[in-house]
Amino acid sequence: MLETFLMTVFCILAVYGAVKFIFLVCSFFINAQSKKIKRHTAIFLKNNEEEVESAIRAILLDQTEFRGDIIAVLKDSTDGTEEILRRLSRENEAILVMTEEEYIDFIKGI
């Protein structure tokens, strides 16, 4: 029981740390550009139903580092990851949920 709890906490912190790192790297490059450009951060997810909601909510709460859309790109998840992301997307317009194909089309349109 304790091992499962610690593993869950570790996974949540690992996902949050990875996402935070991505945001910091993106912020470094984006800050050189105009403030008028809308920022997007893409997160590729597959079978992350246990950690995804807490990680996305943590990112949204940390508005000092991130201002813009979170694009959650689904990579053939077979668990409840997609349903969780769709619900979060309905709750917050800054969260966009896309398939890989939709993301490619989105990038081509920028």
Please, could you describe this protein's structure?
This protein is α/β, with parallel strands linked by helices and 110 residues long. It has one domain. The chain contains four helices and three strands, in the order H-E-H-E-H-E-H. Strands 1-2-3 form a three-stranded parallel β-sheet. Helix 3 links the parallel strand 2 and strand 3. It is globular. The protein starts with a helix and ends with a helix.
- Note poorly predicted spans: none
Strand order of the largest sheet: 1-2-3
Radius of gyration: 15 Å
Biggest β-sheet description: 3 strands, parallel
Q: What is the helix fraction of residues, given as a range?
A: 40-55%
Mean of all residue-level pLDDT scores: 81
The helix/strand order is HEHEHEH
Number of domains: 1
Shape: globular
